[in-house]
Specification:
The complex is a heterotrimer of chains A (441), B (277) and C (305).
Chain A (H helix, E strand, L loop, with lengths): L16 H22 L2 E5 L5 E5 L1 H25 L2 H5 L3 H28 L4 H26 L8 H18 L3 H23 L4 H21 L1 H4 L5 E2 L5 E2 L2 E2 L7 H5 L6 H26 L2 H11 L1 H6 L4 H27 L1 E2 L6 H14 L4 H17 L4 H18 L7 E2 L11 E2 L9
Antiparallel strand pairs in A: 1-2, 3-6, 4-5, 7-8
Chain B lengths: L4 E12 L2 E12 L3 E5 L6 H8 L7 E7 L5 E3 L6 H5 L3 E3 L12 H8 L1 H7 L4 H5 L2 H20 L15 H14 L4 E5 L7 H18 L2 E5 L3 H7 L2 E6 L2 E6 L1 H6 L1 H10 L1 H11 L1
Parallel strand pairs in B: 3-8, 3-9, 6-7, 7-8
Antiparallel strand pairs in B: 1-2, 1-4, 4-5, 9-10
Helix pairs in contact in B: 3-6, 3-7, 6-7, 9-12, 11-12
Chain C lengths: L1 H31 L6 H21 L5 H28 L8 H22 L4 E2 L7 E6 L5 E5 H23 L1 H11 L1 H6 L4 H27 L1 E2 L3 H16 L4 H21 L5 H15 L14
Antiparallel strand pairs in C: 1-4, 2-3
The chains are: A mainly alpha (441), B alpha/beta (277), C mainly alpha (305).
């Protein structure tokens, strides 16, 4: 952790070596105090139930040294880059070029994604990672409807993911319904819960809505944990049926797909099937969202984000408009949840914590609110980056948190910082994100 | 009640806590005419507007809107978006409220939301792209194009509304309100911040709306040249009550009106009265 | 009746702790307009620092409990306050004039950093401490044999809370710093034009909020006799719930909200079910917000059109 103040006055910034040294020294002293007890002393519950502690001054010294060095590097970098403010203003030409490149990038990315199971057929790890990334892409696109388009801050999105997952898991295990019947049901149930929550709370504004959605997410999780007779409580639901290819199971049995096609069975078939399934679901989400943006409802969502009062003056029913956004987002979350349940075969409340909501929200905000491509890229970066730290399990969330802070400071408006109009007369030109509002709710 | 009144405000009261912002105000706006509501700062004009357009619920009194077909709607019973949707009352805002991150064209498309929602079969028909929806969308774009042409913004159709100069934003806001095809158009200080040339263009626009669309207009204005030049009827308010009413000429010569403006601020009053001549 | 009185005491003590944390949320929200998601973790850090300081002092041979407690209190307030200051400096200040969601995400990130920092540096296991303040009074012994107890630790928690609140109220209402804070809350631009050092005032807000959270952390440690790296999340959400319930931005509201949440939680556990106590607290938050959208003591926001 560097303790360098990141925004100093731009006007007269001293730049001498003495200045840098002084700043680094201050950072190091602050770090010394901060870490003195937390790193310098390690506590642990002893054998007799009491607490013991030992000192780690070596680690402390190392951390302080890292902060000192890091601080010098950060300061040098900053002077090399110039003040923070100038980086953020991207010239319009660059923006336009990026938009143009974005169109090609999207196509290339899509083609590549289609080919992933072909290229990496033997690498189960990459296929699994691909499925994971695509799940988050779908969740990101779903939440994007709520946060990015309608400008409603939802901190409990994971609740709908959980509703979808448990709907499928319970319907399939209790009533023996097939995946293809349960999938739409899971979506509908999640949307229903979205409306149920949305109806009373959507007249709340801003951070009140945020905290209520967060509370709702926690309520759902706590109910799942405690309603043991239905949900199995902390033990979760296991033995969730795997999806079938419209009735044909993808297993080693005689009426399995492999047997019917007369090819040798391989467990990879199922992974590949799951990969294309989530890809199709994600693309459906994307298609519907793009479509909705060009329909009156989608425009009303964006108008709501821009100015709710003006919407009301134009005769738009803001409550139902918000509800539809909430329900649509919840539905996609529920569909993704059903997929999650069938892919894992086992679900438990642990998968639906606030961290998941935060992760999906981070993907949406980092992607650049409202941008479909940005969300996909952000999901890839976040989940991929997360995977890089799989070996260092306990440092994973630490690094993830730092990355979130850093990314927000670096690009507060996300990777793709412009909005594409939904309709045009002569030419479609991207709108700079500086003009786009982010809603009050 | 005369058949010619589109809007009748009857003993309107609006209290905020202990403050009476509008006290027993009655006036009527004639169909197809331009009615101006004037008065010194803080007279309660915008509050009246907010009552008429449903942003405030009046503490007392009645606001009646009579449509061409004789249908009468009690506005004080509707709230919020329903006034714009059912009663066909459109408004603009004192400090412009466009959708800054959307293009001028998109702003006008949002204004046609309710009509387009019906045409898109509450989204479902639109989602699968049925032909009737496509033609409705084309019609909506044509209407928007027509209004952009009328306010002289056709070449800025694809620019973000937030990027337009101030005067253009004012006109775009009026065009947006007109895209809801209102029976009554309420304008809250449409000429504020405009220069003389823009203000002249605004006058022409409002007169042409009255002439071509037959839309009745109710406007709050400080710029006396606008008021005197285009309004058919003027209502003067001060401290929440009506102090005078009549033709622009009659109001201008009314000693009570002069006193109100003088009382508010001597220099302002003189400037206002001089600019009116 | 005795049972109820006992729950009332327990609820008020728990509520005091929530209230102390809630003040930090509400202060930051009032001045900077952001939810400081890391504040729950500041509370957790405060608890850890109190624990470590306590251990060191005991192993140095100090035995006078009041002296130990005073030193622990001061050290944990000081170091935790520095955490608050540093976090504002690193994660929030660069985003002060940015979009609304960016500082919130940054705060969530910071919360993850703090949680996992203490997990990595202090281990994931729960850290128990032996009861430091023992003893208490039996207020009333019922016929059924149920005794209403008021323990010394409960008295300490409540007295500390009251004293700190008095100090804090004095700071906000009487000192220059408090005046600057209130000015920044109204209008930062105007305040800075009138010579208020906005940066410094905001820093001080975080410092004070963190110091109060550290006190809450220490009280938690004393009261429950344990800390762990994850306790900041739940306590943080509940304290924020308390702040919103009381009307965010309002300081008496934060305390009132804290006490309400503490009472709701305790009463629900006592009379209904322990498992659903958090569900009850959150549900009541939702219900209150539906009927009083700005909380119990929040100022109603008049929509300017």
């Amino acid at each position: 952790m560097s303790v360098t103040p990141a925004a100093t006055s731009h006007a007269s910034q001293p730049s001498g070596a003495a200045f840098i040294f002084k700043k680094a020294l201050i950072s190091a002293v602050v770090a010394l105090v901060l870490f003195s007890l937390m790193i310098g002393v390690r506590t642990e519950a002893g054998n007799q139930g009491g607490l013991i502690y030992w000192t780690r001054f070596g680690d402390l010294a190392a951390m302080v040294g890292v902060v000192f060095g890091g601080s010098i590097i950060v300061e040098l970098l900053r002077q090399w880059w110039g003040p923070v403010g100038t980086i953020r203003v991207v010239p319009p030409q660059v923006q336009a070029t990026m938009a143009f490149a974005g169109r090609w990038l999207a196509t290339a990315l899509l083609v590549f994604t289609f080919l992933v199971p072909v290229i990496f057929y033997d690498q189960r790890y990459i296929l699994d990672l691909g499925i994971l990334v695509l799940t988050y892409v779908m969740l990101g696109w779903g939440l994007n409807v709520v946060v990015g388009l309608a400008g409603l801050l939802d901190l409990g999105y994971v609740a709908f993911y959980a509703v979808g997952a448990y709907s499928y898991a319970l319907l399939a295990t209790y009533f023996d319904l097939s995946f293809w019947v349960c999938l739409p049901l899971a979506g509908i149930l999640a949307a229903f819960w979205g409306v149920l929550l949305g109806f009373p709370v959507l007249r709340l504004r801003g951070d009140y809505l945020a905290i209520v959605t967060l509370a709702f997410g926690e309520i759902i999780r706590l109910v799942i944990i405690n309603w043991q007779s239905l949900t199995g409580g902390p033990n979760g639901v296991s033995g969730i049926p795997r999806p079938t290819l419209f009735g044909i199971p993808l297993d080693n049995s005689d009426n399995g797909l492999a047997a019917k096609l007369g090819i040798e069975f391989s467990p990879t078939h199922r992974i590949v099937f799951l990969f294309y399934l989530i890809l199709a679901m994600a693309l459906l989400t994307n298609w519907v969202t793009i479509r909705l943006r060009r329909l009156p409802i989608g425009r009303a969502w964006e108008a709501l984000r821009e100015d709710e009062v003006a919407c009301r003056a134009l005769g738009i029913n803001t409550t139902t408009t918000k509800l539809t956004a909430f329900a649509t987002g919840a539905m996609f979350g529920g569909l993704a949840g059903a997929f999650f349940a069938t892919r894992q075969g086992f679900i438990s409340p642990e998968s639906f914590t606030f961290q998941e909501s935060a992760l999906v929200l981070a993907i949406v905000v980092l992607g650049g609110m409202g941008s479909q491509l940005g969300v996909a890229l952000a999901a890839l970066a976040m989940i991929g980056g997360f995977e890089l730290f799989r070996g260092f399990d306990q440092y994973r969330m630490l690094v993830f948190g730092m990355a979130m802070v850093f990314l927000m400071i670096w690009r507060p408006r996300g990777l793709i910082g412009h909005r594409a109009p939904t309709v045009f007369l002569e030419r479609s030109q991207a709108i700079s994100s500086d003009l786009v509002k982010e809603g009050h709710g | 009640m005369s058949d010619n009144h589109i809007l009748t405000v009857d003993h309107l009261m609006m209290r905020f806590g202990g403050i009476v912002a509008v006290n027993d105000l009655s006036f009527a706006a004639e169909r197809g005419k331009i009615t101006a509501l004037i008065g010194p700062n803080g007279a309660g004009k915008t509050t009246v507007f907010n009552c008429i357009t449903g942003f405030y619920r009046p503490s007392g009194g009645a606001i009646r809107l009579t449509h061409d077909d004789g249908r009468t709607i009690q506005l004080e019973r509707l709230n919020d978006f329903r006034i714009a949707k059912r009663a066909k009352v459109a408004r603009t805002f004192q400090n412009i409220r466009l959708f800054p991150g959307m293009t001028a064209l998109e702003n006008l498309m949002v204004a046609q939301h309710n009509a387009l929602m019906r045409a898109s079969g509450l989204t479902f028909l639109g989602l699968i792209g049925v032909p009737s929806w496509r033609s409705a969308e084309r019609a909506a774009i044509d209407l928007a194009r027509a209004w952009l042409t009328r306010v002289g913004l056709l070449d800025r159709a694809d620019d973000a509304a937030g990027n337009l100069p101030y005067g253009d934003q004012r006109r775009l806001e009026i065009a947006r309100a007109m895209c809801t095809e209102p029976a009554l158009l309420c304008l809250d200080e449409p000429a504020a911040g405009l220069n003389a040339r823009e203000s002249g263009a605004l006058n022409e626009l409002l007169l042409s709306i009255r002439a071509d669309q037959g839309t009745s207009i109710l406007l709050i204005e400080h710029d006396m040249s606008v008021v005197m030049e285009i309004s058919d009827h003027v209502v003067v308010m001060d401290y929440g009550v009506k102090i005078a009413e009549g033709t622009p000429q009659a109001v201008r010569d009314d000693p009570k009106v002069i006193a109100a403006y003088l009382g508010a601020d001597e220099e302002e009053a003189i400037a206002v009265m001089e600019s009116a001549t | 009746m005795d049972y109820f009185a006992q729950q009332l005491i327990n609820g008020l003590v728990l509520g005091s702790i929530y209230g102390l944390i809630a003040i930090g949320y509400t202060m930051v929200y009032g001045i900077v307009g952001m939810i400081n998601f890391a504040h729950g973790d500041i509370f957790m850090i405060g608890g850890f620092i109190a624990l470590i300081t306590f251990l060191i002092l005991v192993s140095l041979g100090l035995t006078a409990i009041p002296v130990i407690l005073l030193i622990v209190l001061l050290v944990s307030m000081a170091i935790t306050a520095l955490y608050g200051w540093t976090i504002e400096r690193i994660a929030y200040r660069p985003l002060r004039h940015s979009f609304r969601l960016a500082p919130m995400l940054s705060a969530i990130g910071m919360s993850f950093v703090l949680t996992n920092f203490s997990q990595v540096s202090q281990g994931a296991r729960v850290k128990p401490v032996p009861p430091i303040i023992t003893g208490g009074y039996t207020l009333h012994e019922g016929a059924s044999g149920f005794a209403v107890q008021l323990s010394n630790i409960q008295i300490v928690v409540v007295i500390t809370t009251v004293v700190l609140l008095a100090m804090f109220t004095w700071i906000v209402s009487r000192t220059r710093l408090g005046r600057d804070m209130r000015a920044c809350e109204q209008d930062q631009t105007m305040a800075s034009l009138l010579g208020v050092d906005v940066d410094r005032t905001i820093s001080m807000t975080f410092v004070i909020g963190a110091a109060l959270a550290a006190v809450a952390g220490m009280m938690y440690l004393l009261y429950y006799g344990l800390v762990d790296f994850f306790m900041g999340f739940v306590a943080g959400i509940k304290a924020f719930t308390a702040a919103v319930l009381g009307g965010i931005g309002s300081l008496p509201g934060a305390m009132l909200g804290g006490l309400s949440i503490g009472l709701i939680e305790t009463m629900w556990s006592a009379y209904f079910s322990v498992e659903y106590k958090d569900v009850a607290a959150f549900s009541i938050l939702i219900v209150v917000l539906i009927f009083m959208p700005t909380g119990l003591l929040g100022r109603p926001t008049v929509e300017k059109v």
